[in-house]
Amino acid sequence: MINVTIWNEYVHEKIHDEVKAVYPDGLHKAIADGLAGESFAIRTATLDEPEHGLTDEVLNTTDVLIWWGHMAHERVSDEITAKVVRRVQQGMGFIVLHSGHFSKPFKALMGTSCDLKWREAGEQEIIWCVNPSHPIAEGIDSKIVLDHEEMYGEFFDIPTPDELVFVSNFEGGEVFRSGCTFRRGSGKIFYFRPGHETYPTYYKPEVLKVISNAVKWAYPAHNAQPVFGMSQPVRPFKEILV
Amino acid sequence: MINVTIWNEYVHEKIHDEVKAVYPDGLHKAIADGLAGESFAIRTATLDEPEHGLTDEVLNTTDVLIWWGHMAHERVSDEITAKVVRRVQQGMGFIVLHSGHFSKPFKALMGTSCDLKWREAGEQEIIWCVNPSHPIAEGIDSKIVLDHEEMYGEFFDIPTPDELVFVSNFEGGEVFRSGCTFRRGSGKIFYFRPGHETYPTYYKPEVLKVISNAVKWAYPAHNAQPVFGMSQPVRPFKEILV
Amino acid sequence: MINVTIWNEYVHEKIHDEVKAVYPDGLHKAIADGLAGESFAIRTATLDEPEHGLTDEVLNTTDVLIWWGHMAHERVSDEITAKVVRRVQQGMGFIVLHSGHFSKPFKALMGTSCDLKWREAGEQEIIWCVNPSHPIAEGIDSKIVLDHEEMYGEFFDIPTPDELVFVSNFEGGEVFRSGCTFRRGSGKIFYFRPGHETYPTYYKPEVLKVISNAVKWAYPAHNAQPVFGMSQPVRPFKEILV
Amino acid sequence: MINVTIWNEYVHEKIHDEVKAVYPDGLHKAIADGLAGESFAIRTATLDEPEHGLTDEVLNTTDVLIWWGHMAHERVSDEITAKVVRRVQQGMGFIVLHSGHFSKPFKALMGTSCDLKWREAGEQEIIWCVNPSHPIAEGIDSKIVLDHEEMYGEFFDIPTPDELVFVSNFEGGEVFRSGCTFRRGSGKIFYFRPGHETYPTYYKPEVLKVISNAVKWAYPAHNAQPVFGMSQPVRPFKEILV
Asked: How many angstroms separate the Cα of C230 from the Cα of each of A70, B103, B171?
């Protein structure tokens, strides 16, 4: 059983009618419902809860954290950001969706601006798999077609991903590295592009399948935690002290 | 249940007393015994069997192939080599051990000479994990100490590994990229350095644990097979034929 | 002064009127003319010359080899293929254009099928830079627009590139990793997608600029050649011989 | 002419006699002298200068910044740290030496703890080249032997380097990824391990040669600056606005 926490800023859905129409109970609820068939223990957390719903108790018992944010990135406190970053470095999986590219924890883990091109024009996105043996692509056909999505275009200012799993083609001519893995410390990170708040992207089975695969991939294995600091030699030798 | 085939050239163990003393029934038998506790269906195959034991039936029902060879690389037929390479590209996992770096299928999959420095002097090897969240390092401490091993030293002429999992320190001063992953087509490859035929390396629990982890990692998931060739557009446009 | 040899199979241009119309003296001549302003010493070589124009003398004095082939890959001899592969591994730069993805030396250096999707429909290709600090992208705007090109689509069956420099968007909906670097031995390889024989792609300044940048990037520096084989310890220790 | 600024916290050399004995005018002076033969315009800057010597004027006219710090990382202001990080993302080369692994700008650019194992015992370090065609290894033999150095050991908590150039072997049994490249935004970063303040490492020609090579590699080429934000389509299509 994998403990999954789905974090959503949950602001658009309360104040924008066109978003409420698509996700009446919030994006997090749609994703939680979509993952319900998996053997995940799912919790949700949102910005307006105390500590944004990410108390030490919640973070310390979360195996994989899913993150969606957009218009309220700056309202996430630096303290909670630092805790999320530290937990990822200690092994918690971290799945960052769509506009989460500009979230505080993702930017801190990347060390770059995470900026990109964008356009809201309801255009077609075709997501192609460029890594056919990757577990995050399991059960996914060679492509996923989304009839209407926001465009994100390169240059996407991230470090070179450890693995590139998906690349998108947009109707207006852009491309985007849409599925990217990164390792930071003992934690695994997956960025997945689709999911603008005005489109029913998170009801789409293939999109949910990718997120579900990513949860399993990002689950922290029982690997040894690295040991740091002053260290005795494994092999004796004649020390020369200054 | 993962179908594992352990291939060993099985020559040293028949003709060299010091090897026979360590691996009386062959290296493949020691590895097979060492993996017996896992839920693997294990077969072995050796050079002198018809088609080197790698008939179409065997290859087509093998999920992960483990390979050990040294003095008889050239006796592996080009036809069987081509079949192994094709099966890896189609998804079969491939775990190449120690002197298998010079085997025909590994060299064909790498596109490089796969050459290296070496020395048989019974020196200490310390294998360090440099990728603490990788599934191949699961359950492995920060290091594995082998009291006596053959030295392999850089430059190891392989393509840049997709992932570097282990790096070795040798008593005589060399380093070596000892645990390396590669993807070729739909297949996953893991090269693991230790295992000279005169040392009891393949009885060592940590070494067997790494091999076992690698089998699970290399197991082909049920991903879509890539489609190649002439392709209709996903999105209609006005064709301009020459 | 960089010694560049441009190899072209030079078959289409002799027998297909629509190709002859675009490249009357051969693709190699167009590329050679396009690079003439650089401080390169340029030679050309073609399939029908003795040893395909790639004699030992030519190969041994070539710093960077550019390769275009398509309909006659199988007519390149295995002997010349092996010599090209060896020279690349020893340091010669190798720039593989368009349908050269299926050439014998490129496939041997990759260890994969190098297969892909394709369509000849004169559609628009937009090549985006995803690596803005890479020397191969120097002087190139964020994108190159080619009004009419053959489509190549993912999955492109290559090993994960060491560096991804360009990604293409095609009008029909596909994407393609269009600019990829690889290192093999001491040699640097750049694959660059555009250049179907029926379009005037190799007269386009941005395309020529990329090829020119790649030549400079692939030029072999005066690095130490790796040393292989039996090796004395750098640091003395007590040997334990079997 | 490449504008190089060498930044040194310059504290040890003033207060520790054994450091003063090795670097009487500061580590920065030794490095500046060592690079004097190159066509670099070299400035130095230190912690105690106003704005740590890194005024906007200095940063904006620096092509490549070299950084050495150890005991006073926390005294570097957050404001100057942010400026250095931004300049790197905009293209300034950044060469981080030895204990600079724990400097504020390096940690911010990596997104990890950058922690490691260490031991001060004057042991031998042997630095091996694992990337023989990399420009940072130009003119360097297969190895560099440093008779006495501080040990740094894995796991080194950095993101997977874009390129691994050097790996160290330490007498006490450890290994370390000693030469690592990273790209962040438009900037190139090179981390180079050796250089403890009590050893004359920065007088060693091979060490200076690596630093000099790295300066040339990290020099920002005249690549197009990425464009971000709202973007018009390259290829017209029927917009569907919400």
From this structure: 59, 18, 16
